[in-house]
Amino acid sequence: MTIDEIRALVADDMQAVDQLIADRLRSDVVLINQLGAYIVNSGGKRLRPILVLLAARACGYQGREHQQLAAVVEFIHTATLLHDDVVDGSELRRGRETANQLWGNEASVLVGDFLYSRAFEMMVEVGSMDVMAVMARTTNTIAEGEVMQLLNVNDPDTTEERYMHVIYCKTAMLFEAASRLGAILAGLGEDAQQALGTYGRQLGTAFQLVDDALDYAGDTSAIGKNVGDDLAEGKPTMPLIYAMREGTPAQAQLIRTAIEEGGRAHIDEIMDAIEKTGAIKYTRALAQQAASDAVSSLETLPESPFRQAMENMARFSVERVY
């Protein structure tokens, strides 16, 4: 089952989600309409809202509130992208200029705040304290992850453990929440909610590890950003951490200096060190293990096309090239 086949399985639900996003994005403030529509419609994979839909259906949910929560998750994700690009000074996302490049940092931050607040407004309408508790904890954890990543920037002493904790907070937590929401809506107990949450957490971990590998082994036109952007921003991601650990003293020092200073001054030598140490292979192996753990956590669910799609989404997360 390809990612397009996964989307086709929830096509009707996604059409409703897209309509909800368009409707709830509207504001009397023209700039919010312009900037919000630009980032929401900029060609993202929509994996997180799709995950809400799949999880709900896999858990036997038959209502429509999963569509509302899928839109909520997409709004929160979009808000984090707007804020991320300002913090990172990014110029390119998904092959297009970032919103902060077009409208400025101030507008991007404020529209991100609008999306956050609109998401919570929509959550209240669902009327579930369990949903509110999960999403409040999730947004708080994401914010903590953003701060932790900021502290790691230009720090070559960032450990693998610290790196993994950051990607849990920044990325995997929202995947975890998206999956758990399906079990909550279906009225399943804590054990089932935790199992779905584990699936999402491991899926998100695999997804981010592959993203970080693609930053050094991807194609710019496929991944929609410049290869080596993480290095340019001084981010010590897994390929760099591993290459420093396993490389020669000269390679380790070169990478340390590059992380401390940022930029792409020695990108070719660093790419060579990453290749020779097997850092990409190691990073992808970690992603593969996380994806396998994600699939295993679904064993408590009954067999269905939706469960199968969730298993295939885990496989897609590590096989993708974009």
From TrEMBL:
SUPFAM superfamilies per UniProt: Terpenoid synthases
Reaction(s) this enzyme catalyzes, per UniProt: 5 isopentenyl diphosphate + (2E,6E)-farnesyl diphosphate = all-trans-octaprenyl diphosphate + 5 diphosphate
Question: Superkingdom of this entry's organism?
Answer: Bacteria
Q: What EC designation does it have?
A: 2.5.1.90
Q: Name one GO molecular function term.
A: metal ion binding
State its cofactor: Mg(2+)
Q: Which Pfam families match?
A: polyprenyl_synt
- Give the matching Gene3D superfamilies: Farnesyl Diphosphate Synthase
Tell me the InterPro entries matching this sequence: Isoprenoid_synthase_dom_sf, Polyprenyl_synt, Polyprenyl_synt_CS
Q: Which UniProt keywords apply?
A: Magnesium, Metal-binding, Transferase
Q: Which PANTHER family match?
A: ALL TRANS-POLYPRENYL-DIPHOSPHATE SYNTHASE PDSS1, GERANYLGERANYL PYROPHOSPHATE SYNTHASE
Return the protein name. Octaprenyl diphosphate synthase
